C-alpha cells in the first residue's frame, strides 16, 4: 500500500473541512504554506541564477573587482569608464542597427511569407514546415552553416548564387562594409519564419465576414489587404515589434560565432563587448556596469510594451 | 468561401496559377531549407573547403563521419543529450509545480510572484554572463562550484519563466469541480495535483516539452561559461573547435552541425502542432 493510498483510506480526518472559525492553527498554516511549497523550486532557482547574479552585477558595477584581494568601492568610475569609451558607443550603435534591421526585415518578410503561404493545402503545410526549420535549429548550427555559405571567395555557395545573377563576389563577413549587414541577414533568415507563424495565427483570426463584405463592395485584392487584413493584424505587429526589439538588444551567439565583433570592431555588439571585458580582459567591474546599463534599457522596453499591450486590449 | 485567404493565392485556379505557385514554393523552400539540406548533403560527401558546399554532390562518402567520430563528436553529442535530458526533466517538473500553485491557489503574494517570473524573462544567460560566471564558480551559501561539470549547464535551466506561464494559463482552464470532488473523496493536496490536474494537462506538457527541448538544445552562453575542458563541451559549443581538420577540412564541422541540427528538427516535426500552439500563445503572453 502506497503512502497516498494510506492517506486516502483514512478519509475522516481529511474530508471534514475544518469549520472556518475553529480551524486549528497548524492546518491553516499548512494551507497557507501549500502554494509556497509548490513554488519553492522555481523561486529558489530564480533566486540563485537570476536575481542574485543581477544583484551581484549591480554591486560589482560600483567596485573594482580584484579576485583574492577583495573588492574596493569605486563609486561611478566603472560607469564613467564604459560610457566614455568609444568601443561602448560603437557597440551600442551596432546593437541598435542590428536590432532595427533584423526586426524590420523579419516583420516585413514574415508578413509577406504569411500572405503567400496562407491556406489549407498539403503542399502549403509542407512548405511552411520546411521554411520553419531555421527557427528550431540551434543558433550555433545556423551561424556555422552561414559562415560556410558566406565563404568570401568566388566559389563560395552564396557568391556562386550571386555570380549567376551577375553580382559579387562579396566579402560578406570579412569586410567591415558588409559584415553587419551579413549578420542582420542571418537574423532575418531565422526571424522571418518565426514572425510568419505568428502572422498566420493572426490571419486566421481576421473575420472572414469582412472579406465577403469587401468582395460585395467590389474592392480589389490589394485594397482588401490594406483595409481589412492589415488593420486586423495590428495587435500582432505590436507584439512582434516589442518582442523582437528586446531580443535584438541581447544578440550574442550569432555575432560571437560569425565574426566575434570583427573585422576591425565593425560588428562589436553590447554583449560581445561585455563578454570580452568581463571574461577575457577580466575587467569585471566595467563589464558589470555594461550589464546593468543594458538591463535598465531592457526593463524600460519591457514595461513600456506591457503597458502598451494593455492598451491594445 | 469559409477558408478564403487574404491574398487568394491558394485558391487561384488555372495552369498559370499552378506554375506560379510551384515556382514560388520551390524558391522559398530553397532559400530557407536549402542551406540546411546542403549541410546534410555535405556531411556525407567529400567537402574539404567551403567552395565544395553544394546540394548536388558528385559522390557520397563516410570519411567525414569517421573523422568526426575520431574528433569526439559522439562524446559532445552525448553531453548534449545528458544536458537536455536532465535539464528538461527538471524544467518540466519545476514548471508544473509552480503552475499548479499559481493557477489553482489563491494566496497573498501571487501577483508579486508573477511579476518576478516575468522579470526573469528579461534576464537570459547572455545578459547575465559576467555575474553568472562569478556565481557559478562559487555558489552563495552552498559554496560549491558548478564550473567544469555538466550539472552547471543543467540546474540553471531548470526554471524557465515561459514554461511556468504556459502551464499556469493552461491549468487555470481545468474545471474546479473535478478538484473538489476528488477532495471530497479524500484525496490530499499532492494527489489532487498528481492524479487529477496533471493528467488533464497533457497538451500543455507537449508544448513545454518541445519548447524546453529547443531552448536547452540552443543554449550557448551557459555551456560557454561552464565548460573548462573539451570533455564537457556540448555539441553546439564544440562546433567552433571543429571548423577545420587536416584530413577532411570542413567535413568534420558539417557532420557536427548536422548532428546538432537533427534532434531539434526531428522533435519539431514530431510535435509540430504543440510547437505552433505554444508559439502563438507564447507570443501573445510575451
TrEMBL record, chain A:
Per the record, membrane topology reads: Multi-pass membrane protein
**GO cellular component assignments:** plasma membrane
Q: Which UniProt keywords apply?
A: Cell membrane, Membrane, Transmembrane, Transmembrane helix, Transport
Listed under GO biological process in this entry are: transmembrane transport
Protein's cellular compartments? Cell membrane
Concerning its family, UniProt says: Belongs to the binding-protein-dependent transport system permease family.
Which protein are we looking at? Answer: Carbohydrate ABC transporter permease
Question: What is the scientific name of the source organism?
Answer: Streptomyces sp. R17
Automatic annotation (TrEMBL), chain B:
Per the record, GO CC terms?
plasma membrane
Ranges that cross the membrane = 22-44, 81-103, 110-134, 146-171, 192-217, 248-271
Family named by the database record:
Belongs to the binding-protein-dependent transport system permease family.
Its domain of life reads Bacteria
The family database entries (CDD domains) matched by this protein are listed as: TM_PBP2
Its predominant location is membrane
Write down the PROSITE patterns for this protein, in alphabetical order: ABC_TM1
Which stretches make up the ABC transmembrane type-1 domain?
77-271
Q: What is this protein called?
A: Carbohydrate ABC transporter permease
Report the Gene3D superfamilies cross-referenced here. MetI-like
Q: Which UniProt keywords apply?
A: Cell membrane, Membrane, Transmembrane, Transmembrane helix, Transport
Family matches, as PANTHER family: ABC TRANSPORTER PERMEASE PROTEIN MG189-RELATED-RELATED, LACTOSE TRANSPORT SYSTEM PERMEASE PROTEIN LACG
Q: Enumerate the subcellular locations listed in this protein's record, separating them with semicolons.
A: Cell membrane
Q: How does it sit in the membrane?
A: Multi-pass membrane protein
Q: Which GO terms describe its biological process?
A: transmembrane transport
